[in-house]
């Protein structure tokens, strides 16, 4: 997260998408000259300046100094070992004095203007009058009684409350600051505070940049303190380029235990996060593929991990053949099938993907495709190993013997890949097509899964394996037997075979 409000003081402005009146009033006090210039370029901010162009200089100055109000004290800058006591600070807050019996009722009507800080009560006792209470107000919104909205003033008048603002000295401690405020105050000024993190059960998983590394233990501890349920913070050490795609990680703070439990799309998974692959950013993709499956379908999950495609599919009453080369993934896959009560629907394997395709998949496909037409299920093959899955596609070439079944019953492959190409869709179609020896450009769909890094995307290409690829010794009558799309494929296929003759073996 970039602390834009430090140098510019308008992070909230940058988050504004539409300009409703509440937001625009909130933003008005921050309208300094430099700020104004920057904001002119932000779409949708136009109304801000129309609403209160008449802010007084005094108001502007007051709000300028208040932009630092909720920053921790400046002496914490550069702190490496977390000293929570160093975060104490006293700030002056606008308060409204009201009779105690109406305090809570009034607070509901002043929601917009009330102070919202972690751990700070918004209604406190009045130290000078036990019959009264003080409602803490947001100093960014309420500067004088003029800052109240019309509706608020009308409620105050109805309840016979004077809109006169008083001041209260509030002591802020470490508990009252948000993690981004703490890290923004500690880390070097103007630099990224945290460049992204994900949560896996009780573990927060960070990916720290070089300038953040001297502060890594403090960052880990702050993330634990500020995120309920998090008790471990780890940092990714290297890119995942090992075979099993699990992260090399370093414990920054908290408990060493990496045995965790997560919920994804209503299913539960348990695993040792230090030994297997798990990415919470794939939950939408797992859901998308699951939605394509129907009861009674057959699924081959070639790189299954701990089961995020397998288990939802089995729950949908699909028959699943799930495989992973990592013995730890295999162990947790078996465990999660039992945990989610689908072990009767899943056959689990611990093979290299190629051996899985040439062994159990081939055998099962042969049987399934020989069934009578009306009993044939839809068959899906998921290949989620984006760095390498395309290389495994060549295994489908001449995998089966016998006569091809009708084209709509041929297996549907969902194969994942990364791409750094300027045209990632074409890139994936071409590489997948080359591995199969056909052109996929007119008979595949490509779904963009997520941006992995600047200029690197993860995609999923979906296609049916043509009979001409899947079956041995195919002599297809081009003129009579094939559908137009297949004819076109074979034409491209011939062309590609010529072109890829000298290409490296995929
Ligand atoms: C990117 S993860 C995907 C896991 C899971 N499908 C998911 O969506 O979270 C790829 C998985 O493939 C496994 N794997 C890597 N190389 C393999 C191979 N040659 N054969 C079979 N599995 C492999 C890894 O252990 C890892 O669990």
UniProtKB/TrEMBL annotation:
It comes from the Eukaryota. Residues 491-506 have a biased composition (Basic and acidic residues). Residues 197-467 form the SAM-dependent methyltransferase TRM5/TYW2-type domain. Its EC number is 2.1.1.228. Its main location: mitochondrion. It catalyses: guanosine(37) in tRNA + S-adenosyl-L-methionine = N(1)-methylguanosine(37) in tRNA + S-adenosyl-L-homocysteine + H(+). GO terms for biological process: mitochondrial tRNA methylation; tRNA N1-guanine methylation. Gene3D superfamilies: Met-10+ protein-like domains (3.30.300.110), Vaccinia Virus protein VP39 (3.40.50.150). InterPro entries: MeTrfase_TRM5/TYW2 (IPR030382), SAM-dependent_MTases_sf (IPR029063), TRM5-TYW2-like_MTfase (IPR056743), TRM5/TYW2-like_N (IPR056744), tRNA_Gua_MeTrfase_euk (IPR025792). It is found in: Mitochondrion matrix; Nucleus; Cytoplasm. The keyword Cytoplasm applies. Keywords: Cytoplasm, Methyltransferase, Mitochondrion, Nucleus, S-adenosyl-L-methionine, Transferase, tRNA processing. Residues 481-506 are annotated as: Disordered. GO terms for molecular function: tRNA (guanine(37)-N1)-methyltransferase activity. S-adenosyl-L-methionine binds at residues 286, 324-325, 352-353, 384. One of its GO terms (cellular component) is mitochondrial matrix. SUPFAM superfamilies: S-adenosyl-L-methionine-dependent methyltransferases. Pfam families: TRM5-TYW2_MTfase, TYW2_N_2. Involved in mitochondrial tRNA methylation. Specifically methylates the N1 position of guanosine-37 in various tRNAs. Methylation is not dependent on the nature of the nucleoside 5' of the target nucleoside. This is the first step in the biosynthesis of wybutosine (yW), a modified base adjacent to the anticodon of tRNAs and required for accurate decoding. HAMAP family: TRM5. Monomer. Belongs to the class I-like SAM-binding methyltransferase superfamily. TRM5/TYW2 family. Belongs to the TRM5 / TYW2 family. This is tRNA (guanine(37)-N1)-methyltransferase. It comes from Cavia porcellus (Guinea pig).
């Amino acid at each position: 997260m970039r602390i834009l409000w430090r140098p510019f003081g308008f992070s909230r402005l940058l988050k504004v998408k539409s300009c409703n009146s509440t937001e625009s009033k909130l933003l008005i006090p921050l309208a300094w000259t430099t700020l104004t210039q920057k904001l002119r370029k932000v779409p949708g901010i136009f109304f801000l300046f129309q609403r209160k162009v008449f802010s007084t200089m005094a108001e502007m100055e007051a709000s300028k100094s208040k932009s630092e109000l909720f920053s921790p004290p400046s002496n914490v800058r550069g702190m490496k070992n977390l000293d929570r006591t160093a975060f104490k600070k006293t700030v002056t807050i606008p308060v409204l004095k009201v009779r105690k019996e109406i305090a809570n009722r009034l607070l509901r009507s002043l929601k917009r203007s009330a102070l919202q800080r972690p751990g700070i009560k918004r209604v406190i006792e009045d130290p000078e009058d036990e019959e009264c209470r003080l409602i803490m107000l947001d100093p960014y919104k309420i500067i004088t009684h003029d800052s109240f909205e019309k509706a608020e003033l009308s409620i105050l008048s109805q309840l016979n409350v004077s809109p006169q603002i008083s001041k209260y000295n509030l002591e802020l401690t470490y508990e009252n600051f948000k993690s981004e405020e703490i890290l923004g105050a500690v880390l070097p000024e103007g630099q990224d505070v945290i460049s992204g993190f994900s949560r896996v059960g009780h573990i927060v998983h960070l990916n720290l940049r070089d300038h953040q590394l001297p502060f890594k233990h403090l960052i880990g501890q702050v993330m634990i303190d500020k995120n309920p349920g998090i008790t471990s913070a780890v940092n990714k050490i290297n890119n995942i380029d090992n075979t099993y795609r699990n992260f090399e990680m370093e414990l920054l703070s908290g408990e060493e235990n990496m045995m965790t439990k997560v919920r994804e799309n209503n299913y539960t998974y348990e695993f040792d996060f230090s030994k297997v692959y798990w990415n919470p950013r794939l939950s939408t993709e797992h859901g998308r593929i699951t939605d394509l499956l129907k009861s009674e379908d057959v699924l081959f999950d070639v790189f299954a991990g701990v089961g995020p495609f397998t288990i939802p599919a089995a729950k949908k009453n699909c028959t699943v053949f799930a495989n992973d080369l990592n013995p730890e993934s295999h162990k947790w896959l078996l465990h999660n099938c039992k945990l989610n009560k689908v072990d009767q629907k899943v056959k689990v394997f611990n093979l290299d993907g190629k051996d899985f395709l040439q062994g159990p998949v081939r055998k099962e496909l042969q049987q399934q495709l020989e069934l009578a037409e009306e009993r044939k299920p839809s068959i899906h093959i998921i290949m989620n190993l984006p760095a390498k899955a395309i290389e495994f596609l060549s295994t489908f070439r001449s995998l089966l013997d016998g006569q091809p079944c009708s084209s709509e019953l041929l297996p549907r492959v969902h194969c994942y890949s990364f791409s750094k190409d300027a045209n990632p869709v074409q890139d994936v179609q071409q590489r997948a097509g080359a591995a199969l020896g056909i052109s996929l450009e007119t008979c595949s769909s490509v779904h963009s899964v997520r941006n992995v890094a600047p200029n690197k995307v993860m995609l999923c290409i979906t296609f049916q394996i043509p009979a001409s690829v899947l079956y041995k010794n195919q002599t297809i009558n081009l003129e009579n037997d094939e559908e137009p799309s297949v004819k076109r494929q074979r034409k491209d296929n011939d062309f590609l075979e010529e072109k890829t003759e000298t290409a490296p073996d995929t």
